[in-house]
Amino acid sequence: QVQLVESGGGLVQAGGSLRLSCAASGTIFSINSMGWYRQAPGKQRELVAVITSGGSTNYADSVKGRFTISRDNAKNTVYLQMNSLKPEDTAVYYCKVVSTWNDYWGQGTQVTVSS
Q1: Using an 8 Å Cβ cutoff, are 35 and 78 in contact?
Q2: Nearest to 48 by CA among 15, 22, 10
Q3: Quick check: 50 and 58 in contact, CB under 8 A?
Q4: CA-CA distance, 4 to 115, in Å (whole number)?
Q5: Is residue 58's pLDDT more than 90?
Q6: At residue 25, does pLDDT exceed 90?
């Protein structure tokens, strides 16, 4: 059974940094991509960043230059380094793993940025 366990969320002041981690336990075959999404209150879930098995990355325009996604293939772990955080980054952040046969979601971790 596959589980995605996220960590690293919390409360931070504007301008600060946080690093999110998402570790996949269990066996996932043929991972195509790993990524982070977020959902703020009253808003739809949106893509933040994604990284493919080959290392290509894609970012939402709102986080370009501030967030960096990386992954450790051997550990099936994906990271999101978030710098220069803004109050509008406040949301629940979800990890997503896309394999050839299934998509997997983490339970979410709260990130709150105070002004």
Answers
A1: yes
A2: 22
A3: yes
A4: 31
A5: yes
A6: no
The contacts of residue 68 (CB under 8 Å, 6+ apart) are 49, 80, 81, 83
Per the CB < 8 A criterion, the answer to whether 93 and 36 are in contact is yes
Average per-residue pLDDT for the chain: 94
Looking at residue 81, its pLDDT comes to: 98
Indicate whether 1 pLDDT > 90. no
Residue of 101, 83, 105 lying closest to 37 (CA atoms): 105
Q: Is the pLDDT of residue 29 over 80?
A: no
- What's the rounded Cα separation, in Å, for the pair 8 and 109? 8
Q: What is the DSSP letter of 43?
A: S
Other beta carbons within 10 Å of 102: 11
User: What CA–CA distances, in Å, run from 108 to 29, 46, 55, 101, 115?
Assistant: 23, 13, 23, 22, 23
Residues whose CB falls within 8 Å of the CB of residue 92, separated by 6 or more in sequence, listed in order: 38, 39, 40, 108, 109, 110, 111
